[in-house]
Design goal:
The complex is a heterodimer. Chain A is α/β, with parallel strands linked by helices. Chain A is built from 11 helices and 12 strands. Chain B is mainly alpha-helical. Classes of the chains: A alpha/beta, B mainly alpha.
Chain lengths: ~325, ~300
């Protein structure tokens, strides 16, 4: 995807020590009231024009973070800044103008499109709610958007179930870009699709980024897709970012033991088996976010863990230019 | 869909009540103790002098099985039972339909608001519905009827006189609200967390618009399925209240009041009570069967299964 780092002025989106905790159960339930640390102390900066890939295994809090970033969830702790504007505690009504510029594409297009409404109507919805367009203007804009995402003009009258998964996701994308947003959070936009369709959607997203000067936050658990689209990636483990850096550098030389294991798991096609690739297999399971481990969250599974890791939690610090790692013993 | 056919036949028959009365030349709302009808050239009094049994007073005419001529006989006021049956059915249908509409409007509003807005709104609304729910339906309906039957209701500019058909409509409409609101609240709650509602919130669509455009269309199948089932329930409740003289007020008829009239004639003219009883049973059963069929046909889950590619 296009790399056009337009200077280092104001970041379009910035989180400062953002946390999201869910309380489950009541004090009357068997285990009492417990707290899930879904997103824990995430500080992330997204600059205009870049694509930040957010990777991590299922259940590590990627989607929760995504929903916090667009304020679909209330934020428990920390700050969220959009274009320098603190939107952490804004109410639904105060957020409305922000939403024009901050959009989201959901994972499952068959769940994120209302099955009872025609797709033209769905794409027109943001225009009706925000815009000052006349009905004719809206129709024109919808046609334009359909053309932009590669749908046919006579598709407007159809219902979502009349489309294939890829086409549905195109509708979801059309809806997200209808208001010309600055930042689009893509929450696993291709993981519900067939591999061949994935490529089409990824290409479409790249085209749109060029044409509309979009900034993306691209969430996925498929590392090869993330590698292809991202300029920078952040690796998440158990609700926190463990490593962040330019995409190619992180992929070619991951510095955190967890990233190393994760990236070693990417299947590659080897024409001549070289034997150089070593698959790192982690022992144990991901700990429950109900009871995160002490110290470094990764220490019970870490191959290089020391005593220090059990007690002291490493901060996400810059070890090399642009490379941030949350580890006491990074390999940078 | 035989059930639907039966429902339709009953509806059409009841709607034709005034036509039947005019054609038969009877007024089912005034007592005609001294009327005389002609059967096979013979003059027969509507009220026969009792010659047997306890020998007290008169026994009304039994069924003649002649359409338009006291088909089902006369009641203890000498009125044509068939004509009263049709008028009574009309009232029963009107009340149960109107009460269904009222229940669905109130129940949908409560379910949507409680399910969507959650929090304190949900708590207050749901607890209020729980209180309503906690009363046995008939106890609540009977209590409300007894309180309002003599004086009617007068709230602000709205006055409903006692004896008005609106009184049972409102009472029946209100007591069943929790039965509709609770399942709907559950559905709205799960829809509220669905991705397409999230997407709408993320687009900045205001809450009321989401309720109207995104959530309501997704619960309409449930609402449609509720209609026949609620009508059956309402018809039973209405008959019970009318039977207890706290529903439809005489001289107006309803199947419930006719059964009550027939109570005294149970030994001599059992058909007076039996006919409306059978009519209620058939209608309620047909509505229930139709409702079940409708649910099977419209079940959203089966639709999803069909829609999957």
């Amino acid at each position: 995807m296009s790399e056009q780092m337009t200077g280092t002025d104001q970041p379009i989106l910035e989180t400062r020590a953002l946390s999201k905790r869910f309380a489950i159960g009541t004090r009357f339930s068997a285990e009492g009231r417990r707290v899930v640390h879904a997103v824990d102390n995430v500080s992330l900066t997204v600059r205009r024009g870049e694509t930040v890939g957010l990777v991590g295994e299922s259940g590590c809090g990627k989607s929760t973070l995504a929903r916090c970033l667009v304020r679909l969830y209330d934020i428990t702790d920390g700050q969220l800044l959009f274009d320098g504007d603190d939107i952490t505690g804004k109410s639904l009504a105060e957020l409305r103008p922000v939403r024009r510029r901050l959009q989201m594409v959901f994972q499952d297009p068959s769940a994120s499109l209302n099955p009872r409404r025609r797709v033209g109507d769905l794409v027109a919805e943001p225009l009706r709610v925000h815009g000052k367009l006349t009905p004719a203007g809206i129709r024109e804009r919808v046609a334009e958007l359909f053309d932009l995402v590669g749908l046919l003009p006579d598709h407007v009258g159809r219902y979502p179930h009349e489309f294939s998964g890829g086409q549905r996701q195109r509708v979801g994308i059309a809806r997200a870009i209808a208001l010309n947003p600055d930042l689009v959070v893509l929450d696993e936009p291709v993981s519900a699709l067939d591999v061949s369709v994935q490529a089409q959607i990824v290409n479409l997203l790249a085209d749109l980024q060029d044409k509309l000067k979009l900034t993306y936050i691209f969430i996925a658990h498929d590392l090869s897709v993330v590698r292809q689209v991202s300029t920078r990636i952040a690796v998440m483990y158990l609700g926190s970012i463990v490593e962040e850096g330019p995409s190619e550098e992180v992929f070619s030389a991951p510095a955190h033991p967890y990233s190393q294991a994760l990236i070693s798991a990417v299947p590659v096609v080897e024409t001549t088996p070289s034997g150089r690739r070593k698959r790192i297999i982690l022992s144990g399971d991901v700990p429950s976010p109900l009871k995160p481990p002490s110290g470094c969250r990764f220490h019970p599974r870490c191959p290089v863990a020391q005593d220090r890791c059990r007690t002291e939690r490493p901060a996400l610090v810059e070890h090399k230019s642009g490379r941030k790692v949350a580890c006491h013993f990074p390999t940078v | 869909m035989a059930a639907l056919a039966i429902v339709l036949i009953i509806v059409v028959a009841c709607l034709s009540a005034p036509l039947y009365a005019r054609w038969a030349g009877v007024d089912p709302f005034v007592s005609t103790l001294d009327a005389v009808i002609t059967i096979d050239g013979q003059d027969v009094p509507v009220m026969e002098q009792s010659t047997e049994g306890l020998g007290l007073g008169y026994t009304p005419l039994g069924p003649t099985w002649r359409l338009g001529n006291y088909f089902l006989g006369a009641d203890n006021q000498g009125r044509d039972v068939m004509a009263r049956m049709l008028y009574g059915g009309l009232n029963s249908l009107l009340i149960s339909t109107a009460a269904t509409v009222l229940t669905l409007i109130l129940g949908t509003a409560a379910g949507l608001i409680a399910g969507y807005f959650g929090g304190i709104t949900d708590t207050v609304l749901s607890r209020f519905l729980d209180i309503l729910w906690a009363f046995p339906i008939y106890l609540l309906a009977i209590s409300l009827s007894i309180v309002t039957i003599a004086e009617g209701i007068s709230i602000g500019p709205i006055t409903i006189e006692s004896g008005s058909l609106w009184l049972p409509v409102i009472i029946i409409g209100i007591v069943y609200v929790p039965y509709v609101a609770r399942p709907l609240r559950g559905q709205v709650l799960s829809l509220r967390n669905s991705e397409f509602v999230m997407a709408a919130i993320n687009l900045g669509v205001p809450g009321p618009r989401i309720l109207w455009r995104d959530i309501l269309p997704n619960i309409t199948t449930t609402l449609i399925v509720f209609v026949p089932l609620m009508m059956a329930l309402n018809m039973l409740t209405e008959s019970a209240l009318s039977f207890l003289s706290i529903g439809v007020q005489p001289p107006d008829a309803s199947w419930g009041t006719i059964i009550q009239d027939g109570q005294a004639l149970l030994y001599t003219r059992p058909l007076v009570a039996l006919a409306p009883g059978i009519a209620i049973a058939i209608s309620v059963m047909a509505l229930n069967v139709f409702g079940d069929g409708l649910r099977d046909a419209l079940d959203p889950r089966s639709k999803v299964r069909l829609g999957r590619d």
